[in-house]
Every structure is written in structure tokens, then in C-alpha cells.
């Protein structure tokens, strides 16, 4: 009889630990960004930008004092050029960046000078309650710009002057 009376308590305990286990398995941060082919070699996205599937990126967190790599997680982009990297734990003392590693497109694999990375803030005490992070999109230069790029860039230039 005693064992029967214990059963509800055991059930509650199992449920409780189950819930705790699920909760602690949730990532602390979900990083989502995009890799594109800068078909106009413009340095920004245009109406003729293409998104790269299968591009490899790496999240790297380096200690801002020592420069030691504290964490590196690889990601790869889907059909729409989006990658998603999930991680547990915060990086209060690190500088974290998403870095372009490899493009699957031979015609679009040139890394523009000084723009192979986007920073991402992963400090838990940063006062941002949301766990989603959206680093700036990263673009590879296409080897030869599309013929339409002259017209495209003219338009962007004019838009800029309007503002
Ligand atoms: C992009 O913009 C340019 C300049 O306005 C235009 O000529 C071209 O047709 C556009 N292309 C697409 C795919 O929308």
C-alpha cells in the first residue's frame, strides 16, 4: 500500500525534472543572419541581390583581454541564405562575431575588404530580454557585376540624394 501512496509523489517529481530538463535545454541565444551575393559589388543589398544557399559561417567569441577564442560554432545557410546558430551560455567578457568562411558559388566568393564579419552581442546582462540576435547580413562580391547594375546603382544614388 505504501508504494501506491508514493506513486503520485514520484510522478510529480518525474514531471518536475522533465520540465526542468526541457527548460535548461533551451538555448540562451538564437542568432539568425543572412549571406548574400552582392551581384553589383555595391557593398550593400540591392533589388538584384541573390541569397546564397550552403554558405559556411562561423560564430567566434574571443576574450577581449587575451584574444583567446572562447567559442566557435559553425553554421550553414538555407535556400534563402539564412543561417541559424543556437548556443547556451553568455559571453559577457568576449567579443563575438559571425564570420564568412566559405561560399559554394565560384562566381561569388570574393570577400570584400574589411567586411567578412558582423558583430553580435551575446552578454546575458546586456539588458536585452529577447534571446534572438540578428547580425548584419554578410555579402560576397560577384566576380563580374550584372549588366543591370549601372541602372540599379544610379537609382540608389538618386534615392540617397533625395533624403
Ligand atoms: C532593379 O532596379 C533597376 C533600376 O531601377 C531596374 O532596372 C531592374 O529592372 C530592377 N530589377 C529587379 C529584378 O527588380
Automatic annotation (TrEMBL):
Bilayer-spanning residue ranges: none
Iron-sulfur among keywords: no
Organism field: Setaria italica (Foxtail millet)
Family recorded in the similarity comment: Belongs to the Ole e I family.
Pfam families found in the cross-reference section: Pollen_Ole_e_1
Entries under InterPro entries matching the protein: Allergen_Ole_e_I_CS, Pollen_Ole_e1_allergen
Keywords per UniProt: Disulfide bond, Signal
Annotated protein name in UniProt: Pollen-specific protein C13
Endpoints of the signal sequence: 1-21
GO cellular component: extracellular space
PANTHER family, per the entry: POLLEN-SPECIFIC PROTEIN C13 (PTHR31614:SF34), PROTEIN DOWNSTREAM OF FLC-RELATED (PTHR31614)
Claim: Lyase is one of the keywords in the record: no
Amino acid at each position: 500500500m505504501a508504494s501506491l501512496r508514493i506513486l503520485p509523489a514520484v510522478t510529480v517529481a518525474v514531471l518536475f525534472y522533465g520540465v526542468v530538463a526541457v527548460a535548461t535545454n533551451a538555448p540562451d541565444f538564437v542568432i539568425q543572419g543572412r549571406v548574400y551575393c552582392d551581384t553589383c559589388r555595391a557593398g550593400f543589398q540591392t533589388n538584384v541581390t541573390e541569397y546564397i544557399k550552403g554558405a559556411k559561417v562561423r560564430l567566434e567569441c574571443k576574450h577581449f583581454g587575451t584574444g583567446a577564442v572562447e567559442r566557435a560554432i559553425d553554421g550553414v545557410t538555407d535556400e534563402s541564405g539564412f543561417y541559424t546558430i543556437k548556443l547556451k551560455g553568455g559571453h559577457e567578457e568576449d567579443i563575438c562575431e559571425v564570420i564568412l568562411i566559405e561560399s559554394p558559388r565560384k562566381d561569388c566568393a570574393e570577400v570584400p575588404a574589411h567586411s567578412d564579419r558582423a558583430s553580435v552581442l551575446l552578454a546575458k546582462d546586456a539588458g536585452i530580454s529577447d534571446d534572438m540576435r540578428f547580425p548584419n547580413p554578410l555579402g560576397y562580391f560577384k566576380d563580374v557585376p550584372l549588366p543591370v547594375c549601372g541602372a540599379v546603382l544610379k537609382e540608389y544614388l538618386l534615392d540617397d540624394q533625395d533624403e
